[in-house]
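Sorry to interrupt, but I need a hand with the structure work. Could you write out one complete protein record for me, on any chain you like? Could you add the entry underneath, on a fresh line?
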Amino acid sequence: MVAFFGLLLYAIHRDEQRKAERRQQDLPHPVEQRRQDRRRKGLPGYLAWGARSLWSKLIIQR
């Protein structure tokens, strides 16, 4: 009798865990946080932005 109620409580607990995991999976992905526009207007700013972008990619690949 005690084993029956123990198994019953365990089954309820596992069912609640599965429901909570499904709720977590159904949540949409968080919005990616990005700065608006890192490029400054004009050719020098655009070239500087390109250089920073390439430099960061080279550092990350190491």
Q: What stands out?
A: The radius of gyration is 26 Å. The chain has a mean pLDDT of 77. Helices lie at 2-26, 43-61. The CA atoms of residues 20 and 49 lie 44 Å apart.
